[in-house]
Each structure stands twice: as structure tokens, then as C-alpha cells.
Amino acid sequence: MNITICLVAYAQKFTETESFESLVKLSDAIKKKLNIIVFDNGAIDYSEIELPPFFHSFTYLYNPNPMERGTRIAYETSLALSKDEWLMLLDDDTLLTENYLLALFSELEDKEREGDIVAYCAKIYDGTVQISPTASETLDMLLYPREAGVYQQDISGISSTLTLNKSFLEKIGGFTTEFPLDYLDHWIFSKIILSHKKVKVLQCKLSHKLSVQDLSSLSEERFHSIFSSEYRFYKAYKPDLLCQLKRKYVKMILKGLLKRDSGIRWKYLIKLMLQVKKTNPRLREEFHRFD
């Protein structure tokens, strides 16, 4: 059995990313089972670079589309090109390990594998903090990390190293255009749960640098993308948590006003809430609680 891995690259040259470096360090036996697709959203086309040997296949794709340069288009393109039963999503700042791939192939090649499991993931850490997978029925996700096991509810996480069943993805229509970048990972987990399918968390630990934890490091554009996507996700898929989300924004606005966190673009959060008032009269009464 082979799997396809979609490695999404951005500003950094893909051969210099942590994920690429971890891929080339894998044993030849594992490499022969991997079809790698590098989807590059960066400013420079590296098509002329010599691609590494020993993989079952290695494809480099440069994205010239100025309108969409996120993860969705990378995942969707890889899904269309893949001939394998399983597709792994991979960010460029995740350290993939031989142990995780050995455990993953052991699960996928098990003839008694549970058919309702359509996704596999590792426990992912940023330093000493497990950032994925976590509970999904709370805004305080990081306080409730998920242990190894099979889940069919109350689970979410980041998309990096998440391995998904191709047939399942095709049945749900592929990756939604609602979330071109941010919150696409949460959407994937929510679709698995809504489809009454399961996620299996493997007893493997991987390292990942989660840049969004440091708001001061985010550009204006990325900050706007994260919080507008967050609001749209909870409004559409977890409306029970919407009031909590609004309270969170109010606290962030106050924190930004008092300069306790220079990374908070509090003016944008106010604008976001005001735009919701104008465009969704049904929510107006709820927003009055914070006026």
C-alpha cells in the first residue's frame, strides 16, 4: 500500500522546510511507499530544482493563482491527482517521523481495520504543549488534549499529518471553499463527526511550530483571516458556542485597548462584530448583551 502526502509550502523554499528535511531522512523502505506532492504557494517557482530520489513518486506544483493561495487549493489539487486510498496533509513546519509512518502503515494495512475510521492522526506538540488533537466542544481546546484511541465525537485538531480516506473525502465533495486556509482543519473534523465516522489517534508524538499562538507575530492579513474564519466556522457549525466566542472577542478588545497584548488588532474585532450586526439582523439581540 502507498499513500499520497500533500506538503504545502509558503514563503520558505520547500527544500529548506522542516517537513521536507524530515521526509528525506526517512528510510528507503518507507520512501518507496510515499507519493509526495509539494504544492508551493510561495512567491518563487522552484520547478527547476532537482527532486529527491527513492520516493515512489515526487511531484512539485507551483501555484500561479493569485486569488487563492491557501491550504484548500493544495489539498483539493492533491486529492484530484492522487491514486492512493489515503491522503496525508502536511504543513511545512511539522517534523514527520519514521515511527509515525510505521504505525500509520500498520493501521492502514491491517485487514481487520475498522471501516468507519476515515482519519488517522498523531499527538502533536508545540514544545511541551499538546496542540492537537483536542476536544471540539469548547473554546478552551488546549485544556482538553485527546489521548490515543478511537473517537466519533468531541474531537478536533490541526490538519498537519492528518491522514484521510480518499473515498470519504470524495463523498463529502472534497475540501470546502468556505475556508481557503484558516479553520479548514476544524471543518474537516466536524464533517467526520457529522458523517458519523471516526478518527483514530495513534500513540505517536510529533513536533510542530504553531505560529498562530503568538498573535504579535501575525500580519494584519493573517489576523483578519483567522478571526473572520473562526467566526464563520462557529456560526455555521457550532452555533451553541457562538455566545462564548463573542465574549472572548469582547475580552480581547478590552485587552487590546489596555495594551496588554500588542498583537490584538482590537479595531478589527470591533469591525467584525459590527459587520455581523449589519449583515445578520437575527444576531442583533445577542450582540446587545455586550453593548
TrEMBL record:
Domain named Glycosyltransferase 2-like: residues: 17-171
Entry keywords, A to Z: Glycosyltransferase, Transferase
Class of this enzyme: transferase
GO molecular function, one term: glycosyltransferase activity
InterPro entries: Glyco_trans_2-like (IPR001173), Nucleotide-diphossugar_trans (IPR029044)
Listed Pfam families: Glycos_transf_2
Known EC number: 2.4.-.-
Name of the protein: Glycosyltransferase
